[in-house]
TrEMBL record:
Gene3D superfamilies: Cytochrome c1, transmembrane anchor, C-terminal, NAD(P)-binding Rossmann-like Domain. Coiled coil: none annotated. Pathway: Nucleotide-sugar biosynthesis; UDP-alpha-D-glucuronate biosynthesis; UDP-alpha-D-glucuronate from UDP-alpha-D-glucose: step 1/1. One of its GO terms (cellular component) is nucleus. It comes from Rosa chinensis. It is an enzyme of class 1 (oxidoreductase). One of its GO terms (biological process) is UDP-glucuronate biosynthetic process. Belongs to the UDP-glucose/GDP-mannose dehydrogenase family. This is UDP-glucose 6-dehydrogenase. It catalyses: UDP-alpha-D-glucose + 2 NAD(+) + H2O = UDP-alpha-D-glucuronate + 2 NADH + 3 H(+). SUPFAM superfamilies: 6-phosphogluconate dehydrogenase C-terminal domain-like (SSF48179), NAD(P)-binding Rossmann-fold domains (SSF51735), UDP-glucose/GDP-mannose dehydrogenase C-terminal domain (SSF52413).
Length: 482
């Protein structure tokens, strides 16, 4: 029986290993983490992350060939293949602060593998890492071990998206495996290929050299984020000219060379990966003496920041240039629908912007807890462009002005405006007539995800702002927003 151990029971490690266990009954999978609370949750009925379909997969295999444990050393020692799926956040201090990936967790995992191993192993980079990380990991493993033990490093970046993780893992567009071009390296590639081949068609398993696999993950995320920033840049121009971003992106996406996906205008992208991975790419470009290339990719993040502040400016400008002491409902806080993840969610910046203008916020999200929202809004925000400055935010002031409520109607009651910040399906079918009746007048809706039928809402009486779409006469009359 092949034994797999995965270090890191997070958004990637948990779902990925659960699917491997389900699809490969002859493989034993142990997912380990240092975080006892997280492991306890994986072993309970309330999993630590929300992901459609995940409960079902975990229930089918847990206790059979899928285990969650904090016995890190023991599980790594017994494994043939060790996946490393620890977090690789952006460094906040020291060399490369604000851009470089922080590999502290990765390095300590590698040192631990070297320390406890008593037999040869394949070590798989699952985390997104800078190109050439495998070389560093190889050095750590070989310099800290007995010579009779061999380690083969593979790069197997994960392309799942939160919210559709299980579907993505069941039917991936591709699985990418990079390895050394030596006979031993190729043998390791084949061993990992054999695992995936149990459910992924052969032609979707791509094999490359190590550096291509590492770089492809950063490149894919940079390209995806770039599409969002490109369409969001167009959305600003649409508002200025009377074009409609939905019509423009439909027309553009019909070009088969471009395609329709990732072309919706929105308040901006979020999530733990896009910004972090682009910054990582920017840093790698700078370190390789390519400032122009670095600047090109930086612009993707700058447009994203611009889009979030443009949204806040639009809200404030529309409401007579002041939201001070006005109740504003925030519908949706997660960075996208079908996840409770709030890492880098645009809602944090939008809410902080509105709080900065002294608004009272009433926030509802179907999957994000009150504690999480309050923590996100009071944590000092790390400013990627000025890493030494943390944007200050006083806890008491913030919390006094924030209420987290249990449904959209309660959030909207007595409010002056409603901001939709996550595209949860339930926001499409709310009883907007009822919401309108309960609100202060004029009643505003600011749709940061273009999910509502603006014309229907206008018939009810709302003043509606949809990103990138022709503006109501009301909004047109208000001062221009930057
Ligand atoms: P996460 O933060 O949810 O999970 C990482 C886990 O690793 C944490 O539970 C942490 O306690 C654990 N950990 C850290 N050091 C450890 C150690 N030495 N021993 C044992 N456990 C340790 O992170 P997430 O979102 O799962 O991301 C992991 C990696 O996968 C990152 O590099 C990320 O860029 C990449 N990735 C993330 C995707 C996503 O959608 N979240 C998609 C594709 C890749």
């Amino acid at each position: 029986m092949v034994k797999i151990c995965c270090i890191g029971a997070g958004y990637v490690g948990g779902p990925t290993m659960a699917v491997i266990a389900l699809k490969c009954p002859s493989v034993e999978v142990v997912v380990v983490d240092l975080n006892q609370k997280r492991i306890d949750a994986w072993n309970s009925d309330t999993l630590p992350i929300y992901e459609p379909g995940l409960d079902d997969v975990v229930k089918q295999c847990r206790g059979k060939n899928l285990f969650f444990s904090t016995k890190v050393d023991e599980s790594v020692m017994e494994a043939d293949i060790v996946f490393v799926s620890v977090n690789t956040p952006t460094k906040t201090t020291g060399l490369g602060a604000g851009k470089a990936a922080d590999l502290t967790y990765w390095e300590s995992a590698a040192r631990m593998i070297a320390r406890v191993s008593k037999s040869s192993k394949i070590v798989v980079e699952k985390s997104t890492v800078p190109v050439k990380t495998a070389e560093a990991i190889e050095k750590i493993l070989t310099h800290n071990n007995k010579s009779e033990i061999q380690f083969q490093i593979l790069s197997n970046p994960e392309f799942l998206a939160e919210g559709t993780a299980i579907e993505d893992l069941f039917h991936p567009d591709r699985v990418l495996i990079g390895g050394r071009e030596t006979p031993e390296g190729q043998k390791a590639v084949q061993a990992l290929k054999d695992v995936y081949a149990q459910w992924v068609p052969e032609d979707k398993i791509l094999t490359t050299n190590l550096w291509s696999a590492e770089l492809s993950k950063l490149a894919a995320n940079a390209f995806l984020a770039q599409r969002i920033s490109s369409v969001n840049a167009m959305s600003a121009l649409c508002e200025a000219t009377g074009a409609n971003v939905a019509q423009v992106s439909y027309a553009v996406g019909k070009d088969s060379r471009i395609g329709p996906k990732f072309l919706n205008g929105s308040v901006g992208f979020g999530g733990s990966c896009f910004q972090k991975d682009i910054l990582n790419l920017v840093y790698i470009c700078e370190c390789n003496g390519l400032p122009e290339v670095a600047e090109y990719w930086k612009q993707v993040i700058k447009i994203n920041d611009y889009q979030k502040s443009r949204f806040v400016n639009r809200v404030v400008a529309s409401m007579f240039n002041t939201v001070s002491k006005k109740k504003i409902a925030i519908l949706g806080f997660a960075f996208k629908k079908d996840t409770g993840d709030t890492r880098e969610t645009p809602a944090i910046d939008v809410c902080q912007g509105l709080l900065g203008d002294n608004a009272d916020l009433s926030i509802y999200d179907p999957q994000v807890t009150e504690d999480q929202i309050k923590m996100d809004l009071t944590s000092k925000k790390f400013d990627w462009d000025h890493p030494l400055h943390l944007r200050p935010m006083s806890d008491t002031t913030t919390l006094e002005k924030v209420r987290v409520v249990k449904d959209a109607y309660e959030a909207a009651k007595d409010s002056h405006g409603v901001c939709i910040l996550t595209e949860w399906d339930e926001f499409k079918t709310l009883d907007y007539q009822k919401i309108y009746e309960g609100m202060q007048k004029p009643a505003f809706i600011f749709d940061g995800r273009n999910v509502v039928d603006a014309n229907k809402l206008r018939e009810i009486g709302f003043i509606v702002y949809s990103i990138g779409k022709p503006l109501d006469a009301w909004l047109n009359d208000m001062p221009a927003v930057a």
